[in-house]
Predict the 3D structure of the following.
Amino acid sequence: MSDEPTKFLLSERDIPTHWVNLMPDLPGEPLPPLNPATREPAGPADLTPIFPMGLIQQEVSPEPEVEIPEEVREAYKLWRPTPLYRARRLERALDTPARIYYKYEGTSPAGSHKPNTAVAQAYENAQAGVRKLSTETGAGQWGSALAFACTLFGLECEVFMVGSSYDQKPYRRSMMEAWGATVHRSPSDATEAGRSQASHPTGSLGIAISEAVEVAAGDAGTNYALGSVLNHVLLHQTVIGQEAIRQLEQAGDEPDLVIGCVGGGSNFAGIAYPFVRRVLRDGAKTRFLAAEPAACPTLTRGVYRYDFGDTVGMTPLMPMFTLGHDFVPAPVHAGGLRYHGDAPSLCGLVKAGLVEARAYKQNETFDAAVRFARTEGIIPAPEPAHAIKAVLEEAEAAREAGEERVILFGLCGHGNFDLAAYDAYLSGSLEDPEFSEEDMREALERLPDVPVPA
Ligand SMILES: Cc1ncc(COP(=O)(O)O)c(C=O)c1O
């Protein structure tokens, strides 16, 4: 056996004590979210009907570090720290001089990065005396993470699951139910928002968010929990990048390039923001690459505008790259990436040129995922398959340039519940749905009339 390590591991004592808040380091004044009715800057008071004060404070925190509550670190011990792998077999198969590392979040009980924020959100809601959390889920990863977290902190959980994923991933629903959650197929007839969208039976994250927000807004004992996009969600995910920094130190490497897939931006921010801060503060020369689906190309084809976070228009307006809040993306298997917008901080970094973005078609991401599975063993979720496709391109570019580049990517979940999608790919029946520029243009006509930020 060689002495070359494959895994870089930390102990439970190394679980970070703080989350990294990139907001105070971002260049320029951040554009505020706007109240959906008055179009005035939204403050903490606008969020109190659906979020507990502990999370609102994290959402607007000006501090560069936010302490992680002891109970949350205690819950993190169930699966954190997560391993960092050196993808030696993949490197050999690609015949690349690049050194490829991946931070694997699939070891969490729900199988993805989502529990990092789910436990933090459930904890703050339990502290505030909330009885139930309502939420949306795309692929079922977020819904299962929240169902798991609610059971740890004694909360009820009600999940609106995007119709296409509900049909494609029945066992994700079983998982949520095993953890005690109630699951609806969205659009559902349990809410006004769902009934108004019955003509879009495949559903979308935007529609499911509208349903979950409506449930929370109508019941004093129920709050809403969001699995991505908002500052506090991105904040919670930064345990990933902080651990990766220490693990790469163990490996004696420094990344030239950090890659992650983007749905709303939370796993990308989680792995990348601690490294972005080093670029902003210390002039480190790291590149960042965000990978998204060609069927829902928010960062690469969307427009930078104020838009709602949900389809029906109940959430604050946020400055972001958007395809239009009522654009319904084709039902690709990477359900967690079917979102019309992205986190405002990430959009700002893309706009400023600090983060590059690329879009990939469904079949090429499954090609990449299968190559990864056949060398490294882990079967990736369809979402990080987008990141893997980008890694393969970059490893090839390193070979062509004859350079020993160091690539770090986020393997943010396993695909053990996505085997119907693998079946479709392996039998040659997986489609590459075209993005409809015309549908986007129509949706953009319905954007709220708020001045475009400079
Ligand atoms: C495995 C996985 N990766 C990525 C995403 C996309 O979300 P985000 O961009 O917030 O990480 C999801 C969302 O459900 C997911 O389940």
